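Hey, resending since the last one bounced:
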Amino acid sequence: MTQFGTFTIMPSTVGDSGVSEAVPATVEWPFHRNLVILIPWAFLVVLLLLKPNRSLSAWAVMIPLMSWALVLLILAHMLGGDGGDFMISIVYVIAMLWSLSYIFSKMSHNGSRFLAAVPILALAFAVYALGTADISFETLGYVIGNGLILGGMWFAFGLAGFIAFRRSYQPLSFALWLLLFCLLVSLGIIGPFALLLFILEGGGFLLLSLLSIVVVGVGVSMWLLLMSFMALVWFNREYRRRFAPIFGIPMAEMDAVPAVPTTPNVDIAESRP
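The structure tokens again:
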């Protein structure tokens, strides 16, 4: 709820005469109750003002964040849905992870760096949830679904990075592996519900086609979202420095490989042992 003031609520109870016999209720909604929606954004501003983030390079994380937020708000308005805020929460959480990624360089083990992202994701999601003033049982499904999607996205991110960067730094290979794993994660999350719906509705080619489109659409959306933030890693040296330790990639190797490949096979002269 983003309005304030005094509201009169008319119950829908109707008597035998066809006229409402209930007494209207008056509710006072103060303006300061709306300020709760600013909590996650204020938290992000404070985070960006921390010493490790006091640079234009670090603030570049706002580019994909605001771009996605604008697109999702427009789509939610056009489609008349009420899940825009919860879709934006996924983008917000990833932006928070990128903003806190300077922590990774202070850890000594690749596995601990990857696992350190899990509590960061949980914290970011909790912070965003605090700013959702209209959370209810009706929107609980969005919260659970987004939690599953965030966990699946990070799993796909880590697995794609492990395979693509195992011997050398190959951005194109990473992008392709990430697409595959995002599709598999989407299938793993939506698949059980789709199968149940398919059984309850008696099957049919049309329903199967629609469910397949949903699975592919969610998977591709996850991939595009992660790739928009990975662009910061490829084109922004600050985020290359932060993410290189996660997969054990030397900075010199990342700097030597162009973000946009100009040849069919992108590799460096010598692979890591």
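Residues 261-273 have pLDDT under 50 and may be disordered.

Sorry for the duplicate.
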